[in-house]
Design goal:
Elements lengths: L1 H26 L3 E3 L5 E4 L4 E3 L2 E3 L8 E5 L8 E4 L2 E3 L9 E2 L12 E3 L8 E8 L4 E11 L6 E6 L5 E10 L4 E6 L10 E6 L5 E9 L4 E8 L13 E3 L6 H57 L15 E3 L6 E3 L4
Parallel strand pairs: 2-11
Antiparallel strand pairs: 1-4, 3-9, 5-6, 5-10, 6-7, 8-9, 10-11, 12-13, 13-16, 14-17, 15-16, 17-18, 19-20
Length: 330
């Protein structure tokens, strides 16, 4: 009987210990949560790569490592309550808050951002019983130079226009339009070249016909920032045609477009001046008519004498009977 009781007690203790171990194991699990979209920043700015533990746990006793595919060494390593920068280019430019670890905040801040900082960052968090990671894509955007357009004649006597610009990152969108506003981008080819700073020199080439036309090249950043258009117009014309002739044609076209507007404005001003001239001519006649009317009235005046006995009670007649004035008798 005692053996059975002891055996039952032993199984109970074993089951309780096993359940307790499982409860601790599940409680120690966590996820590292980061943004689902890329983080966009600009050269010279400060940017935070946000990463948090879910559920919120005190991570001060965990090991934390930030890495990129560019290097086998970590960008930052937090281990045994110490912060270590293993990559020299990040030394003095990273901020990692030991205080925020108490709230499960394992975010990394990068100061004075460089073009080379753009990469896919990985944040790994290790505890004694569990580990997890998140990945954050950092895009460093640089608005490069204004584009320029040049004309190129190939060996097979074909004419092309090249729109090029330097110091861009990432690769911008290049849009071509002709003088009618039609999109000609589908006819172009784009090439890029990376310089020593990691910035891009971009060029787009489009074939043109041997006839007069106007083209605009627009460079637009693919990152969510206000468009930076550059409408650089070039006139494509057949060989042998003088540049001055092209300019003359352009000026002539402008004059033709402006002449109707000037004619309409001149006609309006002429009509207004004619109206004013007519009024100016009629004013002396009008004043003369008024003067004649006044003299006629004065010449028709009669000598009248008011009788105080028969005058209205609201009128006071003078002694000579020639003047009256109104009074309020109320």
């Amino acid at each position: 009987m005692r053996t059975a009781t002891f055996t039952h007690f032993g199984w109970s203790v074993f089951v309780l210990l096993n359940l307790n171990n499982k409860r601790v194991s599940w409680a120690a699990r966590f996820s590292v949560v980061g943004p689902s979209h890329p983080i966009i920043t600009y050269v010279g700015d400060e940017v935070m790569l946000p990463a948090f533990l879910s559920p919120e746990l005190n991570a001060q006793g965990f090991d934390i490592k930030w890495t990129t595919p560019k290097s086998s060494s970590p960008v930052l390593l937090y281990q045994n309550n110490s912060i270590i920068n293993r990559i020299e280019s990040y030394t003095g430019r990273t901020v990692f808050s030991w205080e925020n670890l108490k709230y499960g905040n394992v975010s990394l801040i990068i100061r004075n951002v460089r073009v080379s900082d753009g990469d896919l960052y990985k944040c790994l968090v290790f505890s004694e019983q569990w580990e997890d990671e998140t990945r954050i894509n950092l895009i460093v955007e640089v608005l490069g130079s204004h584009p320029s357009i040049s004309m190129i004649s190939t060996q097979d006597q074909k004419t092309t226009l090249e729109c090029s610009a330097e110091k861009w990152n990432p690769q911008p969108e290049i849009i071509w339009r002709d003088m009618n506003g039609e999109d000609m981008t589908s006819q172009s080819t784009v090439a890029t070249q990376e310089d020593a700073e990691g910035l891009l020199t971009v060029s787009s080439v489009i074939p043109v016909k041997k006839e007069f036309n106007v083209f605009a090249c627009l460079l637009r950043s693919k990152a969510p920032k206000t468009d930076w258009p550059s409408r650089l117009i070039i006139y494509s014309f057949s060989p042998g045609v003088s540049v001055w002739l092209v300019l003359f044609c352009v000026l002539l076209a402008v004059c033709v477009a402006v002449t109707p507007l000037l004619a309409i404005q001149w006609r309006k001003m002429k009509e207004k001046n004619t109206r004013y001239d007519t009024i100016a001519e009629l004013l002396p006649v009008w004043f003369l008519c008024k003067e004649i009317e006044w003299r006629r009235i004065c010449s028709s005046a009669a000598d009248v004498t008011f009788d105080p006995e028969t005058a209205s009670p609201w009128l006071i007649v003078s002694e000579n009977g020639k003047e009256v004035r109104h009074v309020d008798t109320r």
